[in-house]
């Protein structure tokens, strides 16, 4: 019994310690963006690294996701002669849920792991200590640019994912199942709303924030040499992915609460 209580207490302390560190690092990273010097080149570099380099894999994933939605819904809608409503289902599903979540998970796997590994390597090789010796704030230099560019990149990638996913659904519906394209587009316009897009973009911005802060946090507190870098990278990807799914539910619930 005592061992169980010790295990629970240890887990609670570790949980609170992690989120306490996360909160402090996040606040510092956000506020330090407004302190000079502002290194715009680093922002541009990370925007290209996180955003532009992730575009091909997200575009491919989104195209086939939209196509799969059309394939799965066609059978049910065909029974009611309502195939032309597939477009609305694809558009709303991608905009509100699939585009932000898939984009965030792919960025986590690709860029979040890279953030944790790079910063973790700098930590164990004492490069972060060297930055401090040169009077360079490591949070401002390493984490702040990644934080802001991740929010922007995931938001833009989600918007692109919406468009590409809808195109995937259109191609499958119109060219494979020969759905009337005029009705397909008209019912999409009638049923899908801009609120659906805003819903997904809000999620995307939050997900981008979570990816950058959690990944950088694990990298920043890495210990134990090369093995520690590997463990931090794995934990960063797993924790970020779980956080994305949990916050996906919370954001959806809050937006539903306010009828958004």
TrEMBL record:
Pfam families: MlaE. InterPro entries: ABC_MlaE_roteobac (IPR003453), Permease_MalE (IPR030802). It is a multi-pass membrane protein. The keyword Transport applies. It is found in: Membrane. The chain crosses the membrane at residues 12-31, 147-177, 197-221, 233-255. Keywords: Membrane, Transmembrane, Transmembrane helix, Transport. Belongs to the MlaE permease family. This is Phospholipid/cholesterol/gamma-HCH transport system permease protein.
